[in-house]
Design goal:
This protein has one helix and ten strands. By secondary structure, it is of the alpha+beta class. The protein has one domain: minor pseudopilin epsh fold, CATH 3.55.40. Strand 8 and strand 9 form a beta hairpin. 25% of the residues are buried.
């Protein structure tokens, strides 16, 4: 799944570069953008996108971003993608920054 790959790429870049990387999630316009590469994924019009991200990450507002730290940790979140009859959640663990794709039943 392309979204999970992009998020994983940002996590790995944060660790490798030893810096904070932010993945921007704009559910309304169905765009997920990498903070590491600038690559953006625009999902098709028939895909419903919703995101659950932390309102604050550390000492500042997250602004609709999933923030990865040099340690690999993140502020966590869930990006849900759905079409009629099928759906997936891309889950980002706050403690490990690990990314998991889970099928959801409609």
């Amino acid at each position: 799944m392309q979204v999970a790959s992009l998020v994983t790429l940002d996590r790995n870049a944060a660790i490798r570069r030893r810096t904070q990387i932010q993945t921007q999630v704009d559910a309304r316009s169905r765009v997920i953008a990498s903070g590491a590469t600038g690559q953006a994924i625009r999902l098709p019009d028939d895909v419903v996108v919703s995101a659950l991200v932390a309102a604050r990450c550390g000492d500042r507002p997250s602004g609709g971003r999933i923030i990865f730290f040099a340690s690999g940790m993140s502020c966590g979140g869930v990006i849900a993608l759905a079409r009629p009859g099928t759906g997936y959640q891309v889950r980002i663990n706050w403690l490990t920054g690990g990314v998991e794709v889970v099928a959801i039943t409609p």
